[in-house]
């Protein structure tokens, strides 16, 4: 194997999502079965020992594509020469914490990481923010990296996309492999909008196949939007394996491209399309090719969709103002 290894940095590497993610990256599922990787694990100092344990396990798998593992608590070291960064580690919301407190706490994590990416990452850096609030954490990271093209910073709504696929599959009795062109709009939060009006189920319009607006409004949308809370309620911990799987999907599609006639959902810096204010990191339907994504244009947005997209975008705008007032962007 003569190919130059791709440097992949994972933050929060000793956490549950990190643990579910790293072995799949090392096996080739992130970038491709012929792409060697070097892993950089970034953790807070108290978690370095746990990260070392994970690295030992990775070694013990003898993955042919894994060309090395570095562990650090210094972002400047962890992002040195990084080609792909998965920002997983974040401050979770704790009881009694106001949203402003949460944003400020995460600003203390993502702003220094953005600066380290700006100063040390490779020229072709691609960033996926997984840690919540993902869209606004991505905005903070991007603002701290003015020398990196803004479009390199994305946030994950692929988990919501995958959740929506399965709910639609269960409703229609059609396998997820036959559902295309589903879209998540807006924020990765309870305000997100999973849109089936342009989706197809076995080649037929999904909304026409479902033909049940009450189910859409009262069952499908809330189930997808609040799935994370339902999982916490059921297993006593937040989504880990499914979040890691979505992160793999997001980056693999970004790097390797969407299938002909298909699109996916990514939270990306808005260019003003569909009335989303420029600069907000909001989820859109996108196609990808040769490592570049493009927003799918020309979709008709009906009134049912418009009100829900606007509500989610309003929340994103409020979050942007909150972090601006905190001096984080």
TrEMBL record:
Keywords on record: NAD, Oxidoreductase, Tricarboxylic acid cycle
Keyword NAD appears in the UniProt entry: yes
Gene Ontology MF terms: L-malate dehydrogenase (NAD+) activity
Coiled coil spans: none
Active site: 188 (proton acceptor)
Reactions catalysed, as given in the entry: (S)-malate + NAD(+) = oxaloacetate + NADH + H(+)
InterPro entries tied to this protein: L-lactate/malate_DH (IPR001557), Lactate/malate_DH_C (IPR022383), Lactate/malate_DH_N (IPR001236), Lactate_DH/Glyco_Ohase_4_C (IPR015955), Malate_DH_AS (IPR001252), Malate_DH_type2 (IPR010945), NAD(P)-bd_dom_sf (IPR036291)
Residues that, per the record, bind substrate: 93, 99, 132, 163
Residue span, Lactate/malate dehydrogenase N-terminal domain: 7-146
Enzyme class: oxidoreductase
Residues annotated as binding NAD(+): 12-18, 106, 113, 130-132
Statement: the UniProt record of this protein carries the keyword Membrane: no
EC number(s) reported in the record: 1.1.1.37
Top-level taxon of origin: Bacteria
GO biological process: malate metabolic process; tricarboxylic acid cycle
PROSITE patterns recorded: MDH
PANTHER family with a match to the protein in the record: MALATE DEHYDROGENASE
Similarity-based family: Belongs to the LDH/MDH superfamily. MDH type 2 family.
HAMAP family named among the record's database cross-references: Malate_dehydrog_2
Purpose: Catalyzes the reversible oxidation of malate to oxaloacetate.
UniProt name for this protein: Malate dehydrogenase
Protein encoded by which gene: mdh
């Amino acid at each position: 194997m003569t190919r130059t290894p791709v440097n992949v940095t994972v933050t929060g590497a000793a956490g549950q999502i990190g643990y579910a993610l790293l072995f799949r990256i090392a096996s080739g599922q992130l970038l491709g079965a012929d792409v060697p990787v070097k892993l950089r694990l970034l953790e807070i100092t108290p978690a370095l020992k746990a990260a070392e344990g994970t690295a030992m396990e990775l070694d013990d798998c003898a993955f042919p594509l894994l060309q090395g593992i570095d562990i650090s608590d210094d972002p400047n070291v962890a992002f040195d020469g990084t080609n792909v960064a998965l920002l997983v580690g974040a401050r979770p919301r704790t009881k009694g914490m106001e949203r402003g407190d949460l944003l400020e706490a995460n600003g203390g994590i993502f702003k220094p990481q953005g600066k380290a990416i700006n100063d040390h990452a490779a020229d072709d850096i691609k960033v996926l923010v997984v840690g919540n609030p993902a869209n606004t954490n991505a905005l903070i990271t991007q603002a701290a990296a003015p020398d990196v093209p803004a479009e390199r910073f994305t946030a994950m709504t692929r988990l919501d996309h995958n959740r929506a696929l399965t709910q639609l599959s269960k409703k229609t009795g059609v396998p997820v492999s036959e559902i295309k062109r589903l879209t998540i709009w807006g924020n990765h939060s309870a305000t997100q909008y999973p849109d089936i009006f342009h989706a197809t189920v076995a080649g037929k319009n999904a909304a026409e196949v479902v033909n049940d607006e009450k189910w859409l409004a009262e069952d499908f949308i809330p189930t997808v939007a609040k799935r994370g809370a339902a999982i916490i309620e059921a297993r006593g911990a937040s989504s880990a394996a499914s979040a890691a799987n979505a992160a793999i999907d997001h980056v693999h599609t970004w790097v390797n491209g969407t299938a002909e006639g298909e699109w996916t959902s990514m939270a990306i810096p808005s260019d003003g399309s569909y009335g989303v204010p420029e600069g907000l990191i909001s989820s859109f339907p996108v196609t990808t090719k040769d490592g570049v994504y493009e927003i799918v244009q020309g979709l008709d947005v009906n009134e049912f969709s418009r009100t829900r997209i606007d509500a989610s975008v309003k929340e994103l705008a409020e979050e942007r103002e909150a972090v601006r007032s905190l001096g984080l962007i």
